Task: inverse folding
C-alpha cells in the first residue's frame, strides 16, 4: 500500500499569486493513497526540504509528490531530499505547477487552480506505480581527447596532461598552432605571437602524456561519458614521419609553387611543405592536389589530356628515404573518458561583399592577410608591401565590421576581436613606417577588456590613427589609388579617402566542418554554427552530452586571453571527471521483455545511440536487449516496438496511462 | 536562321529620344535570330513617376503590358533598364494574390503574373546565339556600364551580380573587344535627377566618365537610355565645369554589336550621339 505525501509550493508569489494553494492542498489530501498534504513558502529552501524529511518519518511516507517548478530546475534537489530520509530517490515525482500552470495562466486563477489539481492528480497516479531504481556503476577511462590544436586546444591538452592524465590531441592541419600562429603580434601588449605560442607548441609535442596526431580528423564517436570509443582518421601524408628528420631538402627542391593557406594567399609554398617555419611537427606533408607525381599517377590511369612530368624529385633527394607514395590512410580506434572540442574559427570571406572589391582588387586585403605581410617570417619578410605592385603604402584605410554586425548577409553578431586588432594594426603599421597615415572606419569601438581602452587610445595618440565613425559604402580604383567612400556620421557628411592599401577587418566565423563534428559528438550548434554550451552563464564549457566539453572560439568570437581561459576551464572540468574511478549512470533506461519480443529489431533502426543489442536465449531465440550504458531513455524504441515489449524504467507505459486516466475522474 | 520569338516592349525612349537604340537592337536581333514582336498598343511602364505617386498605378501600368505578353504566350524582352526594372518589381509585388487580384480589376483583363521578362542584354549575350562576327572589335577597350536598374535589387531581378556584373563584359570579349576591369559598372549616374538637379547628375556622371578614362577605356557601353543621356548629353556640361575635354563616347551595346556583325555606322545611327564616336572608331579602323 502506497503512503503518498504531497507538498505544494508557493514559490513566493510565483505560484501562490495565481493558484489557490489551500484549495489545492485540500484536493490533494482527498486523492487515492495520499496520507499527507502540506504547503510551503519555498519548498526548495532548507526549511521546505526538512519539512519533507520530517513528514516522511512522521507519516511513514513511501512515495512523495513535489508540486512546484519544472523538474529541470529541482528534480535532483528533491531526489536528494527524499534519499536523505531513507527513500529511494526515484519514488519522488514532480508536478510542474509553475512553468506549466501559474506562469502561463496568470489571467485565469480559477482555471489555473483546477489545472494545478489535475497536474498533482497525474503525479499521484504516476508515483503510485513508481518502482525503486538503482544507478549502475561504470568504469572510467582516464584519458582525454582534445579536438583542435589551436591555442585553446593546446592549453586544454597541457592542463589535462599536467594533471596526470593521458591526452590525444587531434589536429586536421599538418601543424598545430591554429590562428594564433598566423598572427604577428597580439593585443594589447604587442607580444610577438610566435614567441609566446611556439614554446607551448613544443611543450605539447614533447609532453610524455600527450600523443599528437596532425593531419588527422575524428571519424566517429561511440559510447558515452567515461567510455567513449573514437575512430580517428590519420590522413595519408605520403611522408614517413618516423624516417623523416625534417632536414628541409625536399621542400627547397620541390618545383611546384602553390598559394600558401597559412599566408592567406599572400605567399607561396611548395607541394611538399611545412606550413610555417616553427611548425610542430616540423616535418613535411605532400599536398596531393598540386603534387606533380600524383598528377602523373592520375594521368597514367586514364591517359587523358597532357602528360604531366613524372617529377619525384623529393623522393630522389630525401637522404632518409622517407617519401612513401603508398602510405595508406589509417583509422585508429582509441578509448577516452572525456572529450574537449576546440575547433576554433575562420575569418569571414570578404569576397562576399562585392562593393569592397575584396578578392577582386588586389590591394584590398583582410586583417589576417596584413598579419602575414607584417610578420618577419611572412612572405615579404615583414615588409608591408602592397600586393599589386610591391609599393610601400603611405595611406592605409581600415574598414571595421566586415562580415560582422551586418543583417544583410546573416551576420548580425559582433566578432569582438576586430576593434582591438584594428588598433593593433594601426600601431604596428606606424612602427613599420612612421610616415604612414591610418584611417579606421568604425560603427562603435568596443574595447571591453583589461588594458584594452588604453590600447585603443594609444592607436590614436601614438600612431595618430584617425577613427571615423561610419560605414564604408564602396571601394574603387582610380589609377594606382583606392578610393574609399564612406560616411562620417559625426560630421554628417560623405567622405572619400584616397588610399594605397585597404584592410578589411573581417569577422569571426565558425570553422568549416564543425556541423558534421557536432553531429558526430551529438552536441548542438547555433544558427551560425557556433557550438552551444549547456548554459551560457553557469555551464560555459559543458554541453548537453555528458563528458563532452567545448572551449575557445568554436563557441563564439573570443580573443586569445579568453580562449586560453576557456581551454583551461574545459580542462578543469575534464580533469574532475577523469579523476573519478567510476561513474553512476541514469537508471531511467529502456528494458526489453524477452517473452514479448518478436525479434523484429525495429528498435535497432530507430535508436540514435546504438543502445539496442542482440542476445540469443537458451531456447534459441535471438531477441533485443538494451545496453543500459548507451541508453539515454528517450523512448523512441518504445513507440517503435509493435508487440509492446519495451518499457522505460521510471516512465512505464502503465504509468503514462495511469496519468491520463487520472484526468477522466 | 531560325528565329526565336519574343514579345518586345521597347518603352518610350526607344520610340523617342533614343531611336538609335531601337534601330541597332532590331538590326542585331534579326542577325542573331531573335524575333522581336512588338506589343500592340503598349503603354508607359510608369518609369520614375507612377510608383512614387500611386502604388496601384505603379503596378497597373506595367501589368497592362505584361498581360499582353502573357496573352501572346511569349517571354517579354525589354531593352530599357527602367522598363525592365518596373516590370520585374511590379511582378514581385503581384506575387501577393490580393495585390494581383486588385491589379486584375484595375486593368480589367485576366492576368496570371506568369510571364518571363528578360533584359535585352541577357538575351543577346546568351551563349546559345549564333553570332557571325564579321569585324571583330580588336583593340577596342570598352568600359561596360550597366547602371543600377538592370541589376538592383539583385534578389528580385535575378539577372547579374549587383557590384561586378559580367554579362556585357563577356559579350564584348566574344565580339573581340577588350572589356576594362573597373569598379563603376553599377554606380549611380544621377538617373532621373537629370531635369530637377543637373548639378547632381553632372557630378555623378563625371565620376563614371573619369573612372572609365583612368582605366584606359576608348568608350563606354551602356544598356539603358537614361544612363546614355546622363553620360552623353551631360558630358558637355561636365567638360565645361572641369574646363577639359573628356570626349568619352557612350554607345549602346547593341551598336557595338552591330559594328562587329558588319552593319554600317549609318544603319546603326552612330551619328545620333552628342559625343561623336566616329573619330575614335575611325582611328581603330572600325568605321569608314
Result:
Amino acid at each position: 500500500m502506497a503512503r503518498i505525501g504531497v507538498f505544494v509550493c508557493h514559490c513566493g508569489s510565483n505560484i501562490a499569486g495565481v493558484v489557490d494553494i489551500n484549495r489545492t492542498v485540500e484536493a490533494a489530501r482527498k486523492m487515492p493513497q495520499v496520507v499527507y498534504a502540506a504547503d510551503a513558502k519555498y519548498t526548495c529552501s532548507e526549511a521546505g526540504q526538512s519539512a519533507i524529511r520530517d513528514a516522511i518519518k512522521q507519516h511513514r511516507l513511501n512515495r512523495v509528490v513535489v508540486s512546484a517548478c519544472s523538474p529541470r530546475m529541482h528534480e535532483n534537489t528533491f531526489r536528494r531530499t527524499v534519499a536523505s530520509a531513507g527513500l529511494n530517490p526515484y519514488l519522488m515525482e514532480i508536478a510542474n505547477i509553475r512553468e506549466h500552470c501559474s506562469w502561463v495562466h496568470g489571467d485565469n486563477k480559477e482555471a489555473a487552480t483546477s489545472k494545478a489539481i489535475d497536474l498533482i492528480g497525474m503525479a499521484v497516479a504516476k508515483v503510485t506505480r513508481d518502482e525503486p531504481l538503482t544507478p549502475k556503476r561504470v568504469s572510467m577511462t582516464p584519458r582525454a581527447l582534445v579536438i583542435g590544436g589551436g591555442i585553446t586546444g593546446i592549453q586544454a591538452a597541457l592542463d589535462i596532461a599536467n594533471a596526470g592524465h593521458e591526452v590525444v590531441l587531434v589536429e586536421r592541419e599538418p601543424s598545430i598552432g591554429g590562428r594564433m600562429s598566423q598572427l604577428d603580434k597580439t593585443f594589447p601588449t604587442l607580444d610577438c605571437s610566435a614567441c609566446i605560442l611556439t614554446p607551448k607548441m613544443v611543450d605539447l609535442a614533447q609532453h610524455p602524456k600527450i600523443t599528437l596526431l596532425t593531419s588527422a580528423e575524428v571519424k566517429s564517436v561511440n559510447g558515452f561519458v567515461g567510455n567513449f570509443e573514437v575512430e580517428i582518421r590519420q590522413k595519408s601524408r605520403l611522408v614517413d614521419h618516423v624516417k623523416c628528420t625534417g632536414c628541409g631538402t625536399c621542400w627547397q627542391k620541390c618545383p611546384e609553387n602553390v598559394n600558401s593557406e597559412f599566408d592567406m594567399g599572400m605567399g607561396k609554398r611548395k607541394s611538399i611543405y611545412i606550413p610555417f617555419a616553427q611548425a610542430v611537427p616540423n616535418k613535411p606533408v605532400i599536398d596531393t592536389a598540386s603534387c606533380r607525381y600524383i598528377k602523373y599517377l592520375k594521368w597514367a590511369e586514364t591517359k587523358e589530356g597532357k602528360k604531366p612530368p613524372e617529377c619525384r624529385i623529393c623522393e630522389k633527394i630525401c637522404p632518409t628515404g622517407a617519401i612513401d607514395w603508398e602510405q595508406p590512410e589509417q583509422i585508429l580506434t582509441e578509448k577516452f573518458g572525456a572529450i574537449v572540442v576546440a575547433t576554433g574559427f575562420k575569418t569571414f570571406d570578404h569576397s562576399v561583399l562585392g562593393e569592397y572589391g575584396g578578392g577582386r582588387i588586389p590591394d584590398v586585403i583582410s586583417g589576417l592577410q596584413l598579419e602575414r605581410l607584417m610578420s618577419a617570417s611572412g612572405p615579404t619578410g615583414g615588409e608591408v608591401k602592397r600586393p599589386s605592385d610591391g609599393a610601400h603604402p603611405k595611406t592605409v584605410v581600415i574598414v571595421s565590421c566586415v562580415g560582422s554586425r551586418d543583417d544583410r548577409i546573416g551576420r548580425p553578431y559582433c566578432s569582438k576581436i576586430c576593434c582591438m586588432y584594428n588598433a593593433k594594426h594601426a600601431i604596428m603599421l606606424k612602427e613599420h613606417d612612421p610616415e604612414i597615415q591610418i584611417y579606421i572606419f568604425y560603427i562603435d569601438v568596443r574595447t571591453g577588456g583589461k588594458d584594452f581602452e588604453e590600447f585603443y587610445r594609444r592607436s590614436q595618440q601614438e600612431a595618430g590613427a584617425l577613427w571615423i565613425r561610419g560605414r564604408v559604402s564602396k571601394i574603387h580604383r582610380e589609377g594606382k589609388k583606392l578610393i574609399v567612400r564612406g560616411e562620417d556620421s559625426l560630421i554628417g557628411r560623405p567622405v572619400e579617402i584616397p588610399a594605397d592599401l585597404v584592410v578589411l577587418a573581417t569577422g569571426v566565423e565558425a570553422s568549416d566542418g564543425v556541423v558534421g563534428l557536432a553531429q558526430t559528438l551529438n552536441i548542438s550548434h547555433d544558427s551560425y554554427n557556433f557550438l552551444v554550451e549547456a548554459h551560457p552563464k553557469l555551464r560555459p564549457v559543458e554541453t548537453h552530452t555528458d563528458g563532452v566539453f567545448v572551449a575557445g572560439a568554436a563557441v563564439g568570437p573570443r580573443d586569445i586571453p579568453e580562449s586560453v581561459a576557456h581551454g583551461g576551464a574545459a580542462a578543469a572540468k575534464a580533469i574532475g571527471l577523469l579523476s573519478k574511478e567510476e561513474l553512476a549512470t541514469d537508471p531511467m533506461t529502456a528494458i526489453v521483455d524477452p517473452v514479448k519480443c518478436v525479434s523484429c529489431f525495429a528498435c535497432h533502426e530507430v535508436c540514435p545511440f546504438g543502445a539496442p543489442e542482440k542476445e540469443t536465449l537458451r531456447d534459441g531465440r535471438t531477441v533485443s536487449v538494451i545496453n543500459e550504458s548507451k541508453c539515454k531513455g528517450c523512448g523512441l524504441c518504445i513507440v517503435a516496438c509493435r508487440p509492446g515489449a519495451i518499457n522505460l524504467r521510471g516512465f512505464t507505459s502503465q504509468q503514462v496511462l495511469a496519468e491520463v486516466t487520472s484526468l477522466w475522474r | 536562321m531560325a528565329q526565336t520569338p519574343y514579345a518586345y516592349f521597347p518603352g518610350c525612349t526607344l520610340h523617342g529620344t533614343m531611336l538609335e537604340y531601337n534601330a541597332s537592337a532590331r538590326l542585331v536581333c534579326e542577325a542573331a535570330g531573335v524575333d522581336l514582336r512588338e506589343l500592340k498598343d503598349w503603354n508607359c511602364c510608369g518609369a520614375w513617376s507612377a510608383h512614387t505617386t500611386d502604388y496601384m498605378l505603379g503596378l497597373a501600368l506595367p501589368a497592362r503590358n505584361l498581360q499582353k505578353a502573357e496573352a501572346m504566350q511569349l517571354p517579354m524582352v525589354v531593352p530599357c533598364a527602367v522598363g525592365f526594372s518596373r516590370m520585374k518589381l511590379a511582378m514581385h509585388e503581384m506575387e501577393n494574390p490580393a495585390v494581383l487580384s486588385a491589379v486584375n480589376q484595375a486593368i480589367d483583363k485576366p492576368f496570371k503574373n506568369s510571364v518571363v521578362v528578360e533584359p535585352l542584354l541577357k538575351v543577346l549575350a546568351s551563349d546559345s546565339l549564333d553570332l557571325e562576327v564579321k569585324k571583330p572589335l580588336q583593340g577596342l577597350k570598352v568600359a561596360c556600364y550597366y547602371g543600377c536598374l538592370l541589376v538592383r535589387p539583385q534578389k528580385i531581378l535575378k539577372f547579374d551580380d549587383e557590384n561586378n556584373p559580367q554579362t556585357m563584359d563577356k559579350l564584348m570579349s566574344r565580339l573581340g573587344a577588350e572589356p576594362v576591369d573597373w569598379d563603376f559598372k553599377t554606380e549611380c549616374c544621377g538617373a532621373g535627377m537629370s531635369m530637377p538637379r543637373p548639378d547632381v547628375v553632372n557630378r555623378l556622371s563625371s565620376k563614371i566618365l573619369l573612372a572609365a578614362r583612368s582605366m584606359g577605356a576608348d568608350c563606354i557601353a551602356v544598356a539603358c537610355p537614361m544612363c546614355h543621356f546622363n553620360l552623353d548629353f551631360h558630358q558637355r556640361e561636365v567638360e565645361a565645369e572641369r574646363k577639359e575635354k573628356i570626349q568619352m563616347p557612350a554607345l549602346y551595346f547593341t551598336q557595338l554589336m552591330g559594328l562587329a556583325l558588319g552593319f554600317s555606322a549609318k544603319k546603326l545611327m552612330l551619328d545620333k550621339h552628342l559625343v561623336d564616336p566616329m573619330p575614335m572608331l575611325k582611328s581603330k579602323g572600325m568605321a569608314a
Notes: Chain B touches chain A at residues 161-164, 182-184, 187, 210-211, 214-215 (CB under 8 Å). Strands of chain B lie at 4-8, 34-38, 76-78, 117-119, 141-145, 178-179, 219-222, 250-252. Chain B has a mean pLDDT of 95. The CA atoms of residues 74 and 186 of chain B lie 29 Å apart.
